[in-house]
Here is the input.
Amino acid sequence: MSVALKLALAPVLVAQAVATRRRAPALPEAAGPRVGELPGDGEPLRVLIAGDSSAAGVGVDHQDRALAGHFSRALHRLARRPVHWQLHAKSGLTTRQVHALLLERLRDPSRAGAVGDDVAVVVTGVNDVIDLVPPRRAVAQREALADWLLGSIGVAHVVFAPLPPVHRFALLPQPLRRVMGDDARAHDDALARWAATRRDVSHVPIALDLGPEAMAADGFHPGEPVYRACGEALAAHVAELTTKGRRWT
Here is the structure.
């Protein structure tokens, strides 16, 4: 959609956004531990999961049914190694704010247990779209986050989850749904192009079925079927990296 058309639709889009926010139920983040270990033989895979409400498990009642639970169990099964994972996530965060959250929480990496993590899985993007962050700036913020994780925290590889198909979110009315969907695709395309230039960063495309039964009660956040699909796809990607005859890069 052209910038001129967006400007022309701005009053409608703002009104729809305000009305949507008011009628959407406020769902809590998933309960349960945000750190865990799955035992086994061999050197553990250490995983840092970070991000926004989708990383925090909004839409399901427990972390076992959220992204962290499905991802860690699938990785444990596929890699056939112990998995040690930790989750740092909060609803409403943009990519820049996720970076700030990690800077605060992992200020002392030895205390946080983050040094030497094999992989970081980052789930951000929808709030960048909501906050009208341009795709180029969002990519620059992801690059800053990835470089910090790789250089300062000791992560060996950073995996970015894709932005969801916002144009299929039932909660959003038209034309807001189309505008946000177009913006989300632009963000995800820019993220994929940038990640393709890096050996230490991945973008994992995931095909999702977003029927009503797959979504949370608010029609905006994932339900367990989406968390399962995303967790298993991300785990398969990480497990494949460990079997290519190279550590990560």
